Amino acid sequence: MASSLLTGIDIATMAEGGAPYGMIRDGAILLDGATMRWVGDRADAPAGDQVEDLGGRLVTPAPIDCHTHLVFGGDRAVEFEMRLKGASYQEIARAGGGILSTVLATRAAGFARLVDDALARVDTLLGEGVATIEIKSGYGLDQETELQMLRVARHIGTVRPVHIITSFLGAHSVPADFNGSGDDYIDNVCIPTLRAAHAEGLVDAVDGFCEGIAFSTDQIARVFEVAKSLGLPVKLHAEQLSNIGGTQLAARFGALSVDHIEYANRADISAMADAGSVGVLLPGAFYTLRETQAPPVQDMRDLGVAMALASDCNPGSSPLGSILLTMNMGCTLFGLTPEEALSGVTRNAARALGLTDTGVIAPGKVADLAVWNINHPAELSYRIGENRLFKRIYKGSL
Ligand code: DI6
Ligand code: FE
Question: By CB distance 3.0 to 4.6 Å, which of 6, 59, 153, 381 could disulfide with 327?
């Protein structure tokens, strides 16, 4: 395949250890098929079969949305209205609304409808340069619908130029017909469904919701033991609404990431540091639920825990379809710097998914790039509701 030399670019490589943002002014990137072969100063660049001058624009790694629930049926606008009239997220959940109302809509939707609805959300993300999206199950809560959600997620990767990573989230909520018996559900539905989904090649990682309104650490541990026996990595929704020990549990299992963590304490963050787990921060849920306790960002900096940012795109706690707005919220709500926000949707988001071939601009990495009509990378986090994408390059395709 012919090689292309990209010129007329400033490059925020997001490589660690050098200049802020790994910045190279007046740089060049040599693309060889789907891979980057060379990255550096324009003046030193090797020749390519063709040259593409990008007119002085800024190039970053294509953003990665490393935590979404974007396959689901229906919407929950009425619950949004209820919350604004005073009901809490937990009250709505306990009254059979919340996640369980989306479960009913997802079971009723059918494959084609789930695909169509999800593609609208995927296309919005691609329009912001996103090249990798993680999608969770968790709105089926029966074997048939959990498998269907994961098949929909895999299908999306065949009809759009995007890399899809799936997470099995069978332990998301106790379905209504189990009368609150999380144990019965975990042993008789969740775990057998995980085995079936894995056998069909539908699972890249195993997730859970460890919370008072969802599953205990003991219940999640049973699911994680099965994940371990199948050779699957784990991650966890932990300490989102309260602290019940999910972060420590996830760290014991060597989790790729621990997500939300508003209520995590310094000892929890220390356990994540020891385990090498990434902290995935989800400002869309914090904003939507009007949460006031921010995640312990300074502890993560102090103890060297990598921070990622993701949309958490879901119909309840985070109806957020924009990675750029996610970055802005990470800065304004959690106090991340714009450089932390960009590394949170590139290098650290890749790590949260266990991906080693993407998230930075360097030789040997996949050529997933975003070209922006901006001068400085802080502009990506700074503007609210304005998309300056010029071009997305997916696997080297210009
Ligand atoms: N935490 C969340 O923020 C989403 N799931 C979870 O475990 C919310 C899911 C929903 O409200 O539909
Ligand atoms: Fe989530």
Answer: 381
Q: Which of 67, 106, 209 to mutate to test the pocket of ligand 1 (most atoms within 8 A of CB)?
A: 209
Residue nearest to atom 4 of ligand 1 (CA): 317
* Mean pLDDT for all residues in the chain: 97
Is 237 touching ligand 1 by the criterion CB < 6 Å? yes
Residue 190 burial (10 A CB sphere; 0-12, 13-18, 19+)? buried
**Residue 275 shares a structural domain with residue 370:** no
How would you list the strands of the sheet with 389-393, edge to edge? Answer: 35-41, 23-32, 3-12, 50-61, 369-372, 389-393
Structural domain harbouring 109: 64-352
Confidence of residue 80 (pLDDT cuts 50, 70, 90): very high
Which pLDDT score is estimated for 135?
99
- Assess whether 268 and 155 both reside in one domain: yes
Q: Are residues 50 and 72 in the same domain?
A: no
Number of domains observed in the structure of the chain:
2
One domain for residues 323 and 381: no
